[in-house]
Predict the structure.
Amino acid sequence: MKLENKIAVVTGAASGIGREIALRYAEEGAKVAIADLRLDAAQATADEFAAKGHAAMAVAMDVSDENEVNEGITSVVKAWGGIDILVSNAGIQIVYPIEEFPFASWKKLLAIHLDGAFLTTKAVIPHMYKAGRGSIIYMGSVHSKEASVLKSAYVTAKHGLIGLAKVVSKEGAAHGVRANVICPGFVKTPLVEKQIPEQAKELGISEEDVVKKVMLKDTVDGQFTTVDDVAEVALLFAAFPSNALTGQSLVVSHGWFMQ
Ligand code: NAD
């Protein structure tokens, strides 16, 4: 097992990509904290993992609230003694043309993606520095590298995470702490299911065309990326044995974006 005795916090792990990453980590021997805004859903996920014999705990956390982040991280450290891996994954999507984008929605999206990444990083890093090791993984997107219409806030936030990861990798190096970004293409999770009718309405096209002509248009094979694909990359970043792999962003998108 690649993560035996490691302690991982995954934000937004009650659903979608975060949930699959947490499960993969647990299957590789890690203790996993399922941190989510929705405590009932996080608890249901943790209970399900525990029933499979994994060590899992649910943590109530709005990643954009400093007190909730600090209390949540403290509760994990109290329970298990430290934190080896942070996956800053919680995220939302809001789509509008820029001239109609409500300022409050812009601020909300940036707070969840960027304040959330900053606050969780700030909270775990003293524990990682103390232990002399740690892996921090940010959930970016192809939209960390590429733009799409209607997604000004999301594209801005996802680009920002790459900057944060680069700084954390430089500051963390002396303490054995690495930071990397995963950049998935479209993955069919509740976040994307919600966007399909919204984009169809905004763009005046059918839902089928949103999938074929917008979301998967530039992939090499017209396929969605899966939660398994993303979890595989998250495992690579978490389990990598040295500080060689840091400050990087890896695109997993069926060739939608090629570097
Ligand atoms: P999802 O909606 O299935 O899951 C997101 C989870 O985050 C939910 O459980 C939700 O309760 C939680 N969450 C939302 N706001 C929160 C907050 N303030 N504090 C704590 N938890 C909060 O979405 P997903 O598709 O699994 O997305 C996860 C991450 O992956 C996001 O950062 C998203 O931007 C990124 N991503 C998704 C795709 C995709 O196609 N689905 C592609 C690239 C990147």
The first strand starts at residue 7 and ends at 11. The CA atoms of residues 148 and 242 lie 35 Å apart. The helical segments are 16-27, 39-51, 66-80, 103-131, 152-172, 190-203, 207-215, 227-239.
